[in-house]
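Chapter review: from sequence to fold.
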Amino acid sequence: MIDNLEQTERLLAKLRTALPVPTRITAEVAATLRKQDPAIGIGTTCSITALHYAGDEGGIVCGLDLAAGTDKVVYTSITHLRFDPRLPLAREIAAYQKHRVKRLRHPSAGAA
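The token string follows.
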């Protein structure tokens, strides 16, 4: 298992209560989005407006409201987002991200 299911469910519940959650996308995500749709306005900040758990393989997936005035929602892994350290859930999110990236880099660490 990559994720600790109980901790992930607790974090998801807290995040859902806090929606919309302000975040920043990484430069890599912004570049990918620009390549897919050059017409979309990509800023550095956006809001998480939806959350889903894509199982152990996909982890927490966030729906992002990237551009005001459009109904286009983009989904990305929470590991590709950055959060203001002053955000009340920032520590829990960072712990989840760190744990998940570590397990993904070392597949043997995810074996149960």
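Two observations follow directly from the output. The beta strands are 21-25, 45-53, 60-65, 73-77, 81-82. DSSP finds four helices and five strands in the chain.
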